[in-house]
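User: Continuing from earlier, I have the next pair ready.

Assistant: Great, send them over.

User: Here they are, in order.

Assistant: Folding the first of the pair now:
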Amino acid sequence: RPLIVWLCFIFISIIVHTQAYHRAPCKKIAVKYQFQFSECYAPNINQDLYLNEASFVMAHDSATGYIHTKNNNNNNNGDSYISDDDVSESSEYIAESWGVNDDGDYYNYNQGSTWNKISTNLLAVYGKTQVGSVYEQLNDGARALDLRPRIYNNGTIGFHHGSLINIPLSTITLGGLLEDAKQWCNDNPKELVILFHHELTHEAGYNALSSEVYTEIDDFYTTDDDGSVTYDDAYDDEEEESKSQSQDQGDDYNDDQQKSGYSYFYSGIAKLKQVYRQHYVPYYPCDVLSGITVGEAMELADLSKLGGKGYLLAVDRHDMYASFCGKANWVENELVTCHSKNDENEREENAPRYQMCTNRKNTGQSKLSKLQEYVLASANNDATDNADELGPPADESYYPFNQIQGFWQVDSESASIGITHAASTLLDDNRRSNVNAEMVALAYDQKFTNINLFSMDNVALNGNAMFSVLRNGCGQSVIKDDDDYFACGKNLVMPHMNVSQRLPLFWNIILIVVYSSLFIMVSVMLIQAFGLRDHGLQDHRVECNGVL
């Protein structure tokens, strides 16, 4: 019997290596051990699953990974994608530091008081939830990206994280992010990647989003008279060439010359559609993805139809705010933050004043237990469409996805305590609380009824472990036959998870200051010592000349 089991495992390994995703590079031990199969392999996804049954790791606020980084996105010609191609001939100049005021004049984003610059940078450091580019996040296990677009007055599309943090245009724009995602899909052509928009904002505010424009319907699908959806292939090169020539001549196209006609769209959605067309990435409304299988979604996301490689698509409700397509499970009165203040009237004597998730031996355990209850309720509660109740959606046609928010939430109190008393950032909270490893353990122990979108901060830390556990869940991959039951779920070894020992940013700064001061002091002393030696006789020296 052991021999049969051993031979079966060899057979499964052969299947995995021939029909599988292989993470590259796979040199670091810390990366290898996060995968349940050798050499960073994971079987391909089961395309027969309905899309809301398939499990994906989602990178929460993905664009924040570009904060304090330099944009170096290149296309195949080596040209930089600092901003979207349609903005201006001088798009690089505009996107890096310039906007347009109400009078039509350009102004510099970097202008302002020193305090504004300092506070903005501090907020950006605190609010950063991911490490590295989209390419790196996908390599760290993410297959769904949470994006918050922001449209600027000059037409450039960047990103934001809440009302106070705007990711600088000099680091990333939507066009640059799409090129990063397309490059990863090109390097990993068997994986499906989904981009989720929500909370679209505009620099000019509500009025700029509420207006509608008459523009071309999505080129990637058409709606028939009976309401059914027909999916079109890629752009026809000859049609595009003739269209471009006619535009140069100032000619107008008739509706019957368009593949899918025209309709009214919110101006923000029209702008997003324009950028997606330029970068040849499919962009759909939510209802197109409702009730379809993973295989059908991959048909919609097939970049080979558009001259690329791999599977990538973007989706939102196509409403004014480009709303999220799934049930978010964000219930305000049940949110679990990393830091909170104990009620002074209920606090026991000698009890700590604050509860901190980073204090893993004390109050952190209580915090973690509450977060575990929150995420389990998001998947295991009775189905409901009530936004104020946790649980999967009841109307799966309106909510094609269900999100589980497996990270610490933030409010003003938590941020204040975290900065002033714990000297930490959101990334520090994530590392020091070891929350990602705890979420992986929950998934491995099969505590969830179903996992669809599992949203995480800092996928660079154990994101591949979560990806491996989700992909190797029974029925989730191509290894789905009954005879292969031992090659999925808890029958596979639990991934080895990394524990970050990095100090919080505040203490790193203190150490840098201390060591720099010591280095300067020692350097000054050595310079003075060598200077005294080279200056010849000194009055205070005793000279021995051999005379008694």
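And the other member of the pair:
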Amino acid sequence: MAMEIGARVEAHSLVGAAHLNGYAGKVTAHQGDRVGVDFGPQGVKALKADNLLLLPPQKLPVTVLSGFLGAGKTTMLTHILTNREGLRVAVLVNDMASINVDEKLLKEGVQFSESKDKMVELHNGCICCTLRDDLIKSVRDLALENRFDYLIIESTGISEPLPVATTFAANDEQGRLLLGEFAVLDTCATVIDCANFLKDMKSLELAVDRKELGAEEGDDRTIVDLLIDQAEFANVLVLNKTDLVSSDELQDLRRLFKKLNPGAHIIESQNGVVNPKLVLNTQTFDMDSASMLPGWKAELSGVQHKPESEEYGISSFVYRKDRPFHPDRLQELLKRGPLPGVLRSKGYAWCASDHLIAVEWSHAGSYTALRGGFTWLPLGYCRQSWPEEEKAKWADSLYGDRRQELVFIGTIDEAALSKALDGILVTDEEFALGPEIWTSWPKLVTAQTLTSEDKGREAEFTIGIVKQDGERIGVSIDETEGMRITYIKEGGLIDKWNTDTRPENPELEVSVGYNIVAINGKRGWNELKQQISSSRHLKLTISRLLPSATEKRFPCVESGTRA
């Protein structure tokens, strides 16, 4: 079959140009048995028609339907399909169980036309993780049938919409789009169970504690994690079961979701009854749009902020300080439970003892999680390596980009909240002690671990070098915490040590990332510098331990111990 100029095609089964297999392009010319195809960055190629798969002229639009178990996704989907007004629809239903209950309910409630419609079921897993490859194959196959106007994906109750959405824009290792040539994410909708949302937000349960969710063993997500992930990442929020809550409760929910997800279009429904045009072919999803920012990010960036007086009691407050929290006082505050009136808080914190890594703060409902986040800018001589943008922003700051930047959402008493947070900052006396003392305090999110190459070796070892006049140790140092080696210069004393010891004692080789923790038995930054400048014979104690991120949750309750 001749391929028209401008047609979309995909290369396949090529041997001599196998690197083009899977790439999509547009037909530009015909000459004999060859078809000219523009593959964009890969250039224009002349290929045989047998090696080209004709793609549908239009990408298949997709709605991803998310929502917690019992929110009413299947009921709403049944209503949409019953009122689809001639649309040829494919439905992909995901269920964690081996028997797809939602698929059975849909077939009972909807009349499908074999010639126009199709249902595909994916069970025994979740499309945001374990069944991702199956999702890609199913969507591709449905798109290539070129007979559907629309695809609706109903995800499981524990599915996170973000990884599903990113699949539509993801590339493989060769840079080829996984789904982007076949389908386009049109709408990302989350159904909210108005009758149970606020109650579930107070839950201390993990997903695995509710067997009906089908979460796999080892899944450490909380019920609250799931609720927030689904609510914050959507461009359409359907507040379902509004008839089961009072007008005041519904108003509270409206205000809350306006803060959690300020860019989402909010729809209200009873028994899943919505206008299909509000969730199909909306052409409103844009991954890169500011409207997809969750409320906490929108507040930090200044996007879509409304004065608190317009929010009727649900407000947001950004806490910013350029002084660290004391780790002990921070833990004591969080152990007392959620801060009064706060429904959601998120951002980055500076803990004095975790001087290398930012503390990612995430709170929703009854849980607060502190996790290791990004790495703060290095200090000392390494300031010179900062990107120009960071230099311009943080050059005058004693500790670079380290700061408190937290967003709180709820019925908040700003003055009381600020006072509580100010009370856990280090005092003037503690601030004067500096990182050398701070980093000896208990760490919250930083663990010291050996790399896989160093497993089985001692955490510390000692080397001896002699420094002659004019010789240098020959390393670049990150002074943020101790003397961590960032570069070993060729010809320096450390490089010579490595060259001499590597053949017979490779375990004594000094590597980038290691920390010089003592010189001639002396510890502390000033003492180390003094020894380097004044001593010829240097006995260096080297630590192989590298910083890695960990997590701490409050309250500290294990699965299976809840009331």
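Worth noting for the second one:
Confidence is low (pLDDT under 50) at residues 96-116, 303-312, 557-563. The longest strand covers residues 183-193.
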